[in-house]
Design a protein that fits this description.
With 380 residues, the protein is an alpha/beta fold. The chain has 2 domains: 165 residues, FAD/NAD(P)-binding domain (3-Layer(bba) Sandwich), CATH 3.50.50.60; 160 residues, D-Amino Acid Oxidase, subunit A, domain 2 (D-Amino Acid Oxidase, Chain A, domain 2), CATH 3.30.9.10. Helices cover 24% and strands 28% of the residues. It contains 8 helices and 18 strands. The strands form 3 sheets. Strands 1, 2, 8, 9, 10, 11, 17 and 18 form an 8-stranded mixed beta sheet that branches. The chain has a 7-stranded mixed beta sheet with strand order 6-5-13-14-15-12-16, sandwiched between helices. It is globular and about 65 Å long. The two termini are 35 Å apart.
Length: 380
């Protein structure tokens, strides 16, 4: 039977980042994933994600963002690929908007006071595609960027082709190791990292009750003002709008303005990717663009579905939910669970991949407390 020191089940952004980190350390590692890069399934498919240094979800993410940013720079240099395209991030909402206040507070805590537009009137003057209410609160992060997700996965896997088994995998803990089972054979690993995105609960007993998977509709809109909505003239945006939080990108691919709701959609199963996003699902996004970014509004010219894997509110600790899980399985520390999901994990992939490798190689190293499994009763 084939064997390895480390097995990684799931090779999206997180699993591939861990694979890359282990390879750099000279480890004996194998990764398992049935999906090809670019296939329209899995948490990491699609061309792009938002990189933010300052995060409204938590000020604690700033240090993680900084480590990730250094990692993205290293990956670009090593791979020769363009992975992180610089682009300002504009966050806006009605007066008193908590989302804007939290991002501004995170920036101040890092001694990085925002210097760009601070209200809707100033944002409209700086970015002609926008038509925000004059009194809206605005914060602009100049240190943001467009993370080229599929390019990142390709870069992580460069030179690791012989370490990848293209097959779905299950595992079984045994006294001598973790047996990884695929349709084509079995591998015995000393440790396993499970980074299986929406399928992770199929592999980790007890985790399902603490997760929900939601369907997220994504659209590409033909801009009414192409020059105003293009990359270089328009920012990434996150709007706390009356119809929900809407995020999007300038037209940086010639494909249109990509936009979607960040609010969680309906609950689905891990394999429920069909049907394609409907006009009804994208109606609130289209309406928000028409009202607040009219230069980017227009006909829907492409569409996609993403799945968010969301953690529930903790029932054995202080945690409001939608937080990462990065921890050893208490019942078997040879298994490390990696679910940096809930729709805001991608930007941290280089830092989290390195964290997973460090944890596997140092049994005494613990994940950050907010990410641990002990906050859930099934694992406390």
């Amino acid at each position: 039977m084939q064997s390895c020191e480390i097995g990684i089940i799931g090779l999206g952004l997180m699993g591939s980042a861990a694979l890359h980190a282990f390879k750099r350390r000279g480890c004996d590692v194998l990764g398992f994933d049935p999906l090809t890069i670019g296939e329209a399934r899995g948490s990491s498919h699609g061309s792009c994600r938002i990189f933010r240094r300052f995060n409204f979800e938590s000020e604690a993410y700033t240090a993680l963002s900084d480590r990730a940013y250094a990692g993205w720079q290293e990956l670009e240099a090593a791979s020769g690929r363009s992975i992180l395209k610089p682009c300002p991030v504009l966050e806006a909402g009605p007066p008193g908007c908590e989302l804007v206040a939290r991002s501004r507070a995170a920036a101040l805590a890092a001694n990085n006071a925002a210097t760009g537009p601070r209200n809707g009137r100033e944002a409209n003057a700086a970015f002609p595609a926008f038509d925000l209410s004059d009194d809206w609160d605005v914060v602009v992060q100049e240190s943001g960027g467009i993370l080229m997700a599929e390019e990142a996965v390709r870069a992580f896997r460069k030179g690791a082709e012989d370490n990848i088994i293209r097959a779905a995998a299950h595992m079984r803990a045994e006294p001598t190791g973790i047996r990884i089972v695929t349709a084509s054979g079995e591998v015995m690993a000393r440790q396993v990292i499970v980074a299986a995105g929406p399928w992770i609960a199929d592999l980790i007993p007890g985790l399902r009750r603490h997760l929900t998977i939601t369907r997220q509709a994504v659209g590409w809109f033909k801009p009414v003002q192409p020059e105003a909505a293009r990359y270089g003239a328009s920012p990434i945006f996150i709007l706390d709008a009356p119809r929900g939080v809407v995020y999007g990108f300038p037209d940086f691919e010639g494909r249109g303005v990509k936009a979607a709701q960040h609010d969680h959609g309906r609950i689905v199963g891990a394999d429920e990717w069909d049907p394609p996003a409907t006009d009804a699902e994208l109606e609130q996004v289209a309406t928000t663009l028409a009202e607040l970014i009219p230069g980017a509004a227009g006909a829907i010219i492409d569409r996609d579905i993403c799945l968010y894997t969301n953690t529930a509110k903790a029932d054995a600790g202080i945690d409001d939910g939608n937080e990462f899980i990065i921890d050893r399985l208490p019942q078997d520390p040879r298994i490390i669970v990696a679910s940096p999901c809930s729709g805001h994990g991608a930007k941290f992939a280089t830092a989290i991949g390195a964290m997973l490798a460090d944890m596997a190689l140092d049994p005494g190293l613990k994940a950050p407390e907010p990410f641990r499994l002990g906050r859930f009763s099934s694992f406390a």
